[in-house]
Amino acid sequence: MNLTAESHRVPLSDGNSIPLLGLGTYADPQKTPKGSCLESVKIAIDTGYRHIDGAFVYYNEHEVGQAIREKIAEGRIKREDIFYCGKLWNTCHPPELVRPTLEKTLKILQLDYVDLYIIELPMAFKAMEACKDAGLAKSIGVSNFNRRQLEMILNKPGLKYKPVSNQVECHPYFTQPKLLEFCRQHNIVIVGYSPLGTSRDETWVNVSSPPLLKDPVLNAIGKKYNKTAAQVALRFSIQRGVVVIPKSFNPQRIRENFQIFDFCLTEKEMKEIEALNKNVRYVELLMWHSACFMEDGLERKTPKTLDKMYIAPFPQLRNFTRHPTFAASSCMHPR
Fold first, then answer.
1. pTM (2 decimals)?
2. For position 293, what pLDDT does the model report?
3. Which of 49, 58, 59, 173 is catalytic?
4. Which family does the record assign (predicted)?
């Protein structure tokens, strides 16, 4: 695979393509200064990023959209150059809420479509297919699906479009070899979040886990190529065909994370890094307990009535219902 800063897209099963390196944009809305995401996305686009990963519940899609539109207005990019991935929040999965929620995201972004729209947890998929048919999403995928859950979707009667991607935690300490192989067999691209082992935020992370970027193997390989451990970890993933979306609002790190196309790990080095796998999951998904349901006989734990839906995982997300665009008809109701 010949990867360059200008050309590092991989094909998706529906005929579209996705850049292997993207910018993650999650940040705690209570702790992040306004405008931070806007400036970071603009810096990323100027650096060469063409893949931006965002979400309805990150509370900053308006800044992402503004950055994209400003760069289009400058003539720096065209809309078709940018790959934007949005996510359907887990209390908005009843079929009647899927399209309205996506339309709200598009209204905030002030864009006509998203390039990829994904389900955060095992939820309804049929309504996502309708969004693709309507041109609101170029591709549709899933997130945090294990093999059994993927098989549920793939074997679903009347399936029109299979998911093109599965966004999961993936990094040298959690390489997901079995899931990666299964997805390869079914032409599903793995998108790895927390590819650098994520932050040490106790609300998200098992902070007792060893910090990935202090690993001596990654640092020794980095020294050989005059690269950081982070750059080595990212290069490892993209050489496996795993899309990575490291989050950073630090201009220097945004630029450093993009400098992974001027070196190549040897087969021996790839095996050395693969051997680091500890099956360590940094992001503990127990916080996502507020909804876990699927339609058509699959598991359903959250009622469809809007007044019973809430956002228990993140106390700070209770403020999302105050968003000026969402306040009148938000599908996210605090408990």
1. 0.86
2. 35
3. 58
4. Belongs to the aldo/keto reductase family.
